[in-house]
Amino acid sequence: MSTELECLNSDGDKVATLKDASTEKPSDTKDTGLDNQDSSWLETDVECVNQDRGVWANKFEFFLAIMGYTVGIGSVWRFPIICSRNGGGAFLIPFFFFLITSGGPLYYLEVCLGQFTGQSAGLAFEFCSLSRGLGILQVALSLCVLWYLISIMVWVLYFLYSSCFSELPWTTCNNPWNTENCTEILEVLTGRKTEQDIYNTSVSLLNDSFYTVTNTDNLSVPNLPFSSSQTNHSNVSTLRSSSSVYEFWEYKVIGRSRGLEDMGSIQPHLVICLFLAWLFCVAAVIKGVKTLGKVVYVTATAPYVFLTIIFIKALTLDGAIDGIKIFVKPDFSKLLTTQVWLEAAVQVFYSLGPSWGGVITMSSYNRFHQKSFWSSTICVAFAGFTAFYNGMVVFTLLGFMAKSSGMTVTEIAKQSGPGLVFVAFPAALSLMPLPQLWSVLFFLMLIAVVFDSLFGMLETVTSGIIDQFPHQLLDRRILVNIITGLCFFITALPLTMNGGIYIFQLADWYFASFALLIGSLFECIAICWIYGTERFARDIYIMTGRTVSVILRIMWTILIPLFVTIAFVALLTKYSEPAYGDGYEYSSGAVAAGIFVGMIPIIAMVVVGIVSVLRQKGSLLKRFKSSLNPSDGWGPYEQGTRRKYEMKPYIYPSTWWQKLVVNITGR
Predict the structure, then answer these.
(1) CA distance linking residue 98 with residue 107, whole number of Å
(2) Sheet containing 46-50: which strands, arranged edge to edge?
């Protein structure tokens, strides 16, 4: 392959252009490895970067991109409620424990992998032919999740549009979608109706959102296919199914039908918002990092600006401090339950996004010798801080809402997911002075948060396609992005139908759970046990000049595989089938379809692994052993370093025990 490389000095000035930088044949001279003190590997004055794929204009663009990608919608609608019901401030102990010992180290591992190979997630796993399927799993996972996650952006865009009216449509009952039992949300929350009237029209919103309450008080956690029995929920609720805000969400925004069997028709207002969502997404990545690097200056920083404005205002409202106390008050007895630790572990993976492919793809646009340890560490710290900060903002609003309605924060905090963002928050915002202003700010914040995640996933998918066919598609990136966006738009039209919410929940229940943990587990096994932690650590030294500490080696080699395995087993033992709202249960056929579709990324990984074995020569055992070796294309993407790299092949220790010792100690 003829590749054009632009050579830059340390100031970023162009000093040379190389064409057809073919690799030399490796020398026959054997070597035990790379000397960690050999500074000849580090080209600090002149560095060649692949300008065909593109690179970040500077380190700050990369930091903003991965920070925005890492801080997703789960920090707003999932973390605060999970933290509250799992011991409040005490939940931060297992959360930050797994963030430091598992999520953070795996995050840095993926950053180094992407930067070393200069390839998107689909082609970054050439260090072991058998592990090529991991790249396909990550691209497939991003593709599948991106397909249905766009619905959140669709709903947010419609709420933003609705926030611009002189009278917020979810505060009144004189609209075409309202029922005769509708009660204006201000009447419900300020108590202008008698308690008996409210009780007679009360049905648990919890039963009509993403939770399912049973007689055994078993709570199905949104987005995750396992059950929790941590909180006892009553069927007499906080917000009513007859409230105006609830009817706006159910009967206008999503237009919910009776079930998956009654899909209804396509809803024009959602189709328009879907088109706009994909238009914005495609425009952001239309030229790869050239446009994405500029977009993230706004989308990665805007959420913090909007959150801070809302937080300052919320602190001035009655009940705000009570909400914060409920959020941070520690209940250390909860730490004795396995459920709390399981939810903390899974939340870390949802918060950081390893094994989705986005981290590898974003870091593949770094310059080869860029030092990324601190940028990765700061990004992980920001993710933890943002999750906690979001929780503070959320509970100040819930505290204000509880004070205004005479309910408790705990009752209102029973809601999560769409039930929290699209029902509880609009209700709280409607009570504030100038509600249109605060609604616009809140939904603009959500747009910025969701867009960053969508950008990363879309870039993972399109880069995976382009990197597979570079000769044909590298110069047609704009066309690839447009066609990909159109395909996503057309295939997502069923999500705009009356029964689309049922598809959304079914997909969310199965796509981003098992495949995520399996991908994380096999990624660590492939890099640390097959390729070798020591060999990968030497690759990092070649690239950045930074040695890998023993503590980080232990986390990569032992702790992460152990914790992920435990979390996966616990997930299986606590598995429960999805259900929605007021007693609706998915049919066995729908559940089977959900399981099968959710297994697509895993099936793709296995198939690619089998094909990699079959392409080797010799007996089946010999083919399998050969598939554990790096492919011919593996190595640093910077060509000058690559030639030296191939002349000094790595020799593995002879026994597994020696390999374990070397992987952990580096000696």
Answers:
(1) 12
(2) 14-19, 4-9, 46-50
* Bridge partner residues of 219 (DSSP): 228
Q: Which residue type, as a one-letter code, is found at position 545?
A: G
How far apart, in whole angstroms, are the C-alpha atoms of residue 256 and residue 499?
6
Angstrom distance (rounded) from CA 596 to CA 531:
31
**pLDDT band for position 195 (cuts 50, 70, 90):** very low
**108 and 97 Cβ atoms separated by less than 8 Å:** no
The most distant pair of C-alpha atoms in the chain lies apart, rounded to whole Å, by 89
pLDDT at residue 266, as a whole number: 94
List, in order, residues 6 or more apart from 597 with CB less than 8 Å away: 144, 507, 510, 511
Cα–Cα distance measured from residue 176 to residue 423, given in angstroms and rounded to the nearest whole number? 19
DSSP 175-228: STT--TT-B-HHHHHHT-S-HHHHHHT--BGGGGTT----TT--EEPTTSSBEE
Residue 81's alpha-carbon distances to 24, 387, 621, in angstroms, are 57, 11, 50
Beta strand 46-50 with 584-585 is unpaired
The domain covering 4-167+259-665 belongs, at the CATH homologous superfamily level, to Amino acid/polyamine transporter I (1.20.1740.10)
> 598, 511 in Cβ contact below 8 A?
yes
Question: The pTM is what?
Answer: 0.82
Structure tokens at 323: 């909400």
266-287 mean pLDDT: 93
Domain boundaries, the chain: 4-167+259-665
In this predicted structure, what is the pLDDT of residue 10?
A: 39
